[in-house]
Write a structure and sequence with these properties.
The chain is of the alpha/beta class and about 270 residues long. The protein has seven helices and ten strands. It folds into two domains: about 180 residues, 3-Layer(aba) Sandwich (Rossmann fold); about 70 residues, no CATH class. It binds adenosine-5'-triphosphate (ATP).
Length: about 270
């Protein structure tokens, strides 16, 4: 399988009034086409910086970022992004919010075709019948569903998500996890998910990259062998011994990344 995303030896420091702040240190990450990479690490270690580099919104000091065999040097249209707080435009309907990227990326696409594409996605995430509503008429979970549709409506090669479910309650979050799997099944894409939730990383990820404390390097990579070979992953799988073992490993790695020896950690 070819790697759709390759981060090779990336090092980056922000220039601050107090001098350079090293954030990434010789970071290496490879994500094969169609796979879902989850990235976890201590708060402030550089995860969001990594997403900006992949999207081409920033250039690293040294090292290279490659997408689809092309070196990333500027913002890319073929990247979709989703964030914790979905910024939907209140003066547009939900349908028109979802259509927005198509207006930019595919301006010649007929309106009817854009609408059909957005309607198809909204139905897939359970928002059929809400197309004409305004964002404020929807719950937080529904807004995040609409935002996910907007981030993939133009069929990006890569979907980058920076804690997209972080602000949702636990039940809504689990619903959204299942929606993600349903979306992936009908709209295959390669994804990078930044999260603080280890269960989320195991439920959604094919690989989980644990970053060290700042400046971040790749400390550990977990290949997720979800205890279910076929079909969409079931939530119950998270309560099996296999998942418990993977979660224990990740928790231990996070404690090491935080500079705490696992045995000293408060349980
Ligand atoms: N534009 C900037 N200029 C200076 N420092 C920055 C800038 N952006 C981020 N930082 C600093 O770089 C470090 C890494 O930030 P980043 O947002 O990438 O971390 P993170 O791992 O995503 O954090 P969190 O887990 O808390 O969301 C932080 O210490 C942050 O304060």
């Amino acid at each position: 399988m070819t790697n759709l995303i390759e981060i090779k030896g990336v090092t980056h420091a922000y220039q601050t009034p107090n001098g350079p702040l090293p954030v990434l240190d010789n970071l290496n990450i490879a994500v094969p086409e169609g796979e879902f990479a989850a990235v976890v690490g201590p708060s402030g270690c550089g995860k969001s910086t990594l997403t900006r580099l992949i999207a081409g919104l920033m250039k690293p000091d040294t090292g290279e970022v490659w997408l689809h065999g092309e070196r990333v040097k500027s913002p890319r249209k073929t990247v979709g992004m989703a964030f914790q707080n979905p910024v939907l435009l209140e003066w547009r309907s939900i349908l028109d919010n979802v259509i927005l990227p198509l207006e930019i990326v595919a301006p010649s696409m007929p309106r009817k075709q854009r609408e059909a594409r957005a309607e198809e996605l909204l139905a897939l995430v359970g928002l059929q019948g809400f197309e004409s509503k305004r964002p404020s008429e929807l719950s937080g979970g529904m807004r995040q569903r609409a935002s996910l549709c907007r981030s993939i409506v133009h069929k990006p090669d890569v979907l980058i998500m920076d804690e997209p479910f972080g602000a949702l309650d636990a039940f809504t979050r689990e619903d959204l996890w299942q929606t993600m799997h349903a979306l992936r099944a009908s709209e295959p894409f390669t994804a990078v998910l930044i999260t603080h939730d280890l269960r989320e990383s195991v439920y959604l990820g094919d690989q989980v990259f644990v970053l060290s404390g700042r400046p971040a390097r790749t400390q550990y990579v977990l290949d997720v062998h979800y205890p279910q070979a076929e079909g969409l992953r079931k939530l119950e799988g998270l309560y099996t011994p296999e998942c418990a073992q993977m979660l224990a490993t990740l928790r231990e790695q996070i404690q090491i990344a935080q500079g705490r020896h696992p045995e000293q950690a408060v349980h």
